[in-house]
Amino acid sequence: MKPIELAPNLSLSPIVHGHWRLSDWNLNTQEIITLTEQSIELGITTFDHADIYGNYSCETLFGNALASQKSLRDKIQIVTKCGIKLLSGKFPERSTKYYDYSYEYIVSSVNQSLASLQTDCIDVLLLHRPSPFFNPEEVAKAFFDLQQSGKVFHFGVSNFSASQFDMLNSFVDRPLVTNQIEISPYCLDAFKDGTLDHLQQHKIKPMAWSPLAGGRLFSPSDERGNRLLECISTIAQEIGEDNLDKVIYKWLLMHPAGILPIVGTGKIERLKNAADACDLELSLEQWFRIYIASEGKEMA
């Protein structure tokens, strides 16, 4: 797979390995090392984290692997997020879940992520969700100081609307490099609410979380899911493909916005399916058939 350039001096793999459920995979340190090495061999070199994943444990699990196999760090790109304060036994003083984008919290969160990941730098830091209480000047100052110190190379956001993205972008000295959003055949919001239009306008490539709609495309529980499963299965037969997930990943990858799917699995076979999807061929008509199946109506 050819790396995708998001900004000068920043290229990510077309498929991103998501570690949201790393703590649920029950892998020991050596098994995480092996899975990471196998991912790299497939061309999947970008790994997506957040401070809160696994109740604040996933960064540590991955960091232990990086510390045990130090040669891995130079072969990969680490994306992580901050800003959400979860209710957790690790923070008994908290009485509610809320967001914190103060200068102090962003910087302290990055320092904790660096310690947990056992690395000196983060390739891309994302703000996890937009907040109704948000001071862009403080955020911009935190970004500037983190970049100047060499702790974070690039910055972006996750789940931000076009206007929220532009507002923050107008304050920072280095342009935001991505917006990590939910995109799948089941979730078409980004196609309709202007998010993808905005990203294409500014030549910003999005990362797609939950590209398989959390399994709803394989075990549908509603009419939309049933339509999609039937349509994707038919198209898979047409192109001689046994794995439906490959068709779904290709549906995302072929879009001109340059979508980077985040694949959250501890199974190397599923990562290989995602990598193989890069070489799959879908026609424009087949792409639209999947979109139409999700909508439940023909194009106007």
- First-residue to last-residue Cα separation: 36 Å
Largest sheet: 8 strands, parallel, barrel
CATH topology-level name of the domain at 9-177 = TIM Barrel
**Number of E strands:** 12
Average pLDDT works out at: 97
User: Rg, please?
Assistant: 19 Å
- What is the string of SSEs from the N terminus onward? EEEHEHHEEEHEHEHEHHEHHEHH
Helix segment tally? 12
Indicate the percent of residues in helices.
40-55%
Helix/strand/pairing category: alpha/beta
Structural notes for this entry:
This protein is of the alpha/beta class and 300 residues long. The chain has a domain at 9-177: TIM Barrel (Alpha-Beta Barrel). Helices cover 41% and strands 16% of the residues. It is built from twelve helices and twelve strands. The protein has helices at residues 29-42, 53-56, 58-68, 103-117, 136-148, 162-169, 189-192, 195-201, 223-238, 244-253, 268-276, 284-295, and strands spanning 4-7, 10-12, 16-18, 46-48, 77-82, 84-85, 98-99, 122-127, 152-158, 179-182, 207-209, 260-263. The strands form three sheets. An eight-stranded parallel β-barrel has the order 3-4-5-8-9-10-11-12, surrounded by four helices. A two-stranded antiparallel sheet has the order 1-2. The chain has a two-stranded antiparallel sheet with strand order 6-7. Helix 1 runs parallel beside helix 11, helix 3 crosses helix 4 and helix 9 runs antiparallel to helix 12. The longest helix has 16 residues, at 223-238. The radius of gyration is 19 Å and the shape is globular. It starts with a strand and ends in a 5-residue tail after the last helix. 40% of the residues are buried. The mean pLDDT is 97.
